[in-house]
Every structure is written in structure tokens, then in C-alpha cells.
Amino acid sequence: MVKDGFHQGGAGIRMNIHEYQGKKLFREAGVAVLDGTHCTTVEQALEAYDALGTKVVAVKSQIHAGGRGKGNLYCPNSGDLIMEGGVKIAFSRKEVETYADNILGHILVTKQTGKEGKMVRNLYVESGCDIAHEYYLAMLVDREEKSVLIMASTEGGMDIEEVAEHNPDAIHKVWIDPNAGLLPFQTRNLGASLGLTGSSLKSFAKMMPKLYNVFMKNDCAMVEINPLVKTSGDEMVALDAKVGFDSNAEFRHNSSWDEMRDMSEEEETEIRASEAGLSYVKLDGNIGCLVNGAGLAMATMDVIKLYGGEPANFLDVGGGANEEQVTTAFSIILEDPNVKGILVNIFGGIMRCDIIARGVIAAVENLGLEVPLVVRLAGTNVEEGKEILAQSTLNIHPADDLANGAQRIVELIGGGN
Amino acid sequence: MSVWIKEDAKVIVQGITGRQGQFHSMKMAEYGTDIVGGCTPGKGGQMVDLGVREVPVWDSVEEAVNETDADATIVYVPPPFAAGAIMEAAEAFDRIKGEGIIVCITEGIPTLDMVKAVAYVSDRPGVRLIGPNCPGIITPGETGGAKLGIMPGHIHAKGRIGIVSKSGTLTYEAVAQTMSIGEGQSTCIGIGGDPVNGTGFIDCLAAFESDPQTEAIVMIGEIGGSAEEEAAAWAKENVTKPIVGFVAGATAPPGKRMGHAGAIISGGKGTAAEKFAAFEAAGIHVARDPSVIGSVLKVALEKAGLL
User: What is the pTM of this model?
Assistant: First the structure.
């Protein structure tokens, strides 16, 4: 069975970096990569071409999503197709200029970006390479085996999920005992299973411990190299570098991660929510949700859908939210113009229902709420909480349980979408 | 009987002098948990006031276990030091008693720290880790009981339903649902929503199956990973008691982390639909809405001749 965690890398929370940044980490650790330069303008791309001194170069869009080579570039204003392919091989200075111009400042849409795509602000110009064979290689945390997993396949350049589906035997896996680390026999066996022999196997055996060090030292959630190539000189070279960090480990890497973080690649609202101690994910529906606890927040979305509505967001205010956080939560929900109604669902544990009730009233008064609001409270101090809501003159609809709350809000906004 | 934690279990608290640690220690003691002391490196010799009593603080878990013969420890240590605290407790329990329960509440522990800590605990077979990033474990008693965690104690009552869940507040919802049909709980276990944790669903199902007090089980899963599918397949072969199952995240979009580090559909895997299907295939009574867990449980109990 193919287990969880290809593109998201098993270990949930991720801070992603660009290919050029990943390759810098590789280079510093001694993992072979080609010469290349990070550019943000066409002029820089041309200078990079001149400096590299190879006739053939790759001009690569830098965004935090895969499938760049098969993606298309569009004009952000007109929406016109500018160029097919976000990774181009240029055979002349003129071509570098054309490709760089077509990429920078345009929207790249790939299989992984969604139809809205991503604005390309960064470019990587890399020297060309003589490829004998392409492989796939990834390291991630396998949640079932509770250890670091290395996956490799001879079908490089391919989407690993497709390989997993059509030819699972082509994927070779090695699990690493955290007490022993990556052992030489594991590397040798993995290399041999990829059909490497002689100097390419030696090159692979030299590279793997260095790559494992990159993973461990940087608290990676995932490292994916697709493709890893064998050159005509029998050397193993990382032609791609997709690296994501485990954000839980941020406290150990503050300065270096801050430097690499590209805020323009992240959702602005989600960053603001997380700064306020909230966990928010925007969805496509029209019923805003405000819930305490991640599991209950998901369940609340599910029940809204079950009664014919569509959730506009996931929002977990956490275990100890105060009045200010509740107000921030409401304002974030209301920024979404699609929101036609809000369902608050709180099961008070440490968090007391009376405090939440006061927070809800304060938020509604501060923000001048115009859409219907259903509030379901349960748990600690629920009677006081309900009493506070009942005494308010605001238009707040109480609900006894989750199903009842979901039905009410769906009715109040006039049915589903 | 109950699972892993008896009503009168002796408990120490790691990080008892911290703000969270002290607050929750008071709540646990108030519920009736036998808190016998705590541990904070560098603060040994102090006393901590838990309202109902004062308890001593030791510098190390080894001293604390030696002095108190504690059965369990609960970890409220901040993320950078939490994995170290787990390993310290595992070593102390293993050396001194050959067994012990470690409950880790801390959220936000680096995944690679947990990979190391889980391997360390597995090398000490008598020691069990519950969590991290979980509400803890509670065994309600006739009066009081043992609450090792941050759950609201007052919503529970002693009974015959075992509850296991990846989630916090959703577990409280499940508890309330059992109460709504007049059923109490044997033990409720929050296993946590992190990708790498200690005790899993199968461990809990096995323990509930062999616990005479437990007569039916409620299992609450979440999107992400394949623990629910594996547990369902295992239950089909090994569990005779009725199980009611719910999975949160049917409406979660792929590739987006839903609050918990582990709650993410990746590469098209770990969806709620797959998990519900696995439950049904294993003969688990499925609740599609947490508000019907109570009524589904009632039907399950009736079918099993337990009502």
C-alpha cells in the first residue's frame, strides 16, 4: 500500500523554500548540484548566463509548487497565455532573454497551484547537464513507521503518485532507525535496486549520507529530488530540490528560516490568523465557522455540509481563546465576501462558555455584524453562557447541539449555495 | 478495571512549576487525581500549592519516581524540551519499576524529536507514551477518578464505554453523546493529532477489548495518515465489542493542514471517505455526524444485547 505523504511530506506543517534555496543547502552540505544563479530581473538572468559560460542553460521559474515544467504562464492583467512550460532550456543568450521575460511577473499555473496559479518573482538560471538517466528520490517522515523514509524510483521526472499507482514495484523504500542513522548497507542496497553500478553507485553512496544530514540538521519535513540524474560522466547530481521544513522546529532555526521565508508565497489571511494564535483555512462556501479545537472544527464543517450548506472556512480558536482573539476570528471570517452566515460552535473545557459568550457579544458589537449568527455552546459554564446570549438584544440564534446549529444556519441563509 | 490508568493511580507532573503545569495540576487534583509530586530541573526542594494539597518538586524524574513510586507522569513541558522530558521519564520508569505511563500534552514538538522519543520509548517495552498534542487520558471514578490531562472533568461519569480519539474538544463531544443516552465511560484516551505519536488506535482497541469494564467503544478519527484504516482492519479480526466510529474532515480540501499537524490529505490519501469505508467494511457502526454518536451507540448496544 502506498502510504501518506508524497507531496506534503507526511509531517503536516510545512514551511517551503524555493529550489534555488534548497540547492544552496545541498551545495553547502556537499550534495552535487549544477552551477546556477538566482535572479529577479531579465538583466540578472543575462548576466548569469554570461557568467555560467555554458552554451545551454535551464531557465527555471521559482514558485512553491511542483509541476513547473508542465505548467503554463499567463499575463496577470489580460489572462492571455504567454508561454507553455515554466522551466525552459535555452540554447542562446537571446533565448534566455525571451524566457526570462516571459516568466518574470507572470502567473504560472501548474497541476499543484490550482487555477489561480502563482505570480513568478524569482528565477533560477542553471548550467546545462548531460543526462544519462533520471531518477526520483525523496526523504520524508513516515507517520505509520514513525521514522524517516527514503523513497527512490528509476522513473525520474514522473509524478511519483502516478508511479505509485501504475507501477508500485518501481518504488524502493528504506526506513531509517533514528538511533542508528542511515547505514552504509541501506545506501548500497538502495543504489543497487536503482540499477546503479561502479562509479555511479559510489557517487550515490557518497551523496546519500550528506543528504540525510541536510534533512536532519535542518528539521526537514520533506526533501524531494525529481529528477536526480546520472550524468554521462556517471556522477549523481540533484537536478531539482524541493525542500520543506517542519515549522514546529522553527525555534531552532529562527534566523536562517526567516532569511529563506518567502511571504509572498503564503496566504496573507492565514499568516495573520496564525499570528493571533488562530488556525484558519479559507474554503469556497458561504457559512463561516468559529470553533474551538481542530477536530471539532472539521466536524462542524462536515455537519454543515451534511445539512446542505457549504463551509466558508476552517477556524480553530484553540483551547484558551480570549475576547480579543474571538474578535479577530470574527473579523477574519467577515473579510471573506462570500460569508452569508456564521456558526459558532464551542465545547468549553478549559475555555468557559460565559467568557466565549461575552467575547461573541463584544465582537458582534464592535464589528456591526450584518449576517445571521448561530451560537452553540456546551461544556464548562454553559448555563451562564446561554443566559448572557439570551439577555443580549443582538440578533443571535442559540442552538442546543451541533446538528441543530448547522440546520439553523443553513435555514437562516436560505438553504445551500 | 479500566485501561492503563486506574482510578487511584499515583501521578507526577513534569513541568509542575510552569504556568500551564500548575494550573492543570490544580484542576487534576480538584477532580480527585492523586498527584503525588512534580518535577522541574533546578527547582527541586520547592513545594507547589495545588489548592487541595501541597506537593513536593524534584529535580529529576528518577528522584520523583523513587520517592513516590508514581505509576504515571504527565508532561506539560514546552516544545523545545518536551521530547527530552519524555525520554527522561521513560528511562526512570524502565530502570526503577520496569513500567509506567507517560502522558504528553505539549503541542508543537518538532517531528524529528518525536521520531527519536518514540523509538526511545519503544526500546522500553513496559513504558507507554500517550500523545503528544492530546487532551490526555481520564478514568472517571464513583467519586472523582484519575484525570491526566486538560479535559473538563465534570462532563464525565464512570461507566462502560471506552473512548479513543485523535481530537480534543471532539472527544468531549463524544463523552457528552454517551452521557446523553445515560452511559458513562471506562477510560477516555486522546492519542493526539500529531503525525508521530506514541499510543495508537490499535493499542487502545486491544486494551478496551481486554478490559472487563469496557463493553463498547467509541473511536474518533481524523483525516490524514492511515491509522484509522489499519485500526478498522485490526478490529475486524480482534475486537468482539461493538465499536462506533466517526471521522472528522469529510469536507477538508486536499493539501491543506486542518489545525492538527497530522490532519492533512496528501497525495490523495488519508481522506475521510476512505476511512468511513474502512470502518463500514470492518462492521464498525458509523456516525456521520458527531451529534448522532449517542443514538448510533444506543443501536449498537441494543444489537449486541447490552441494553
Answer: 0.93
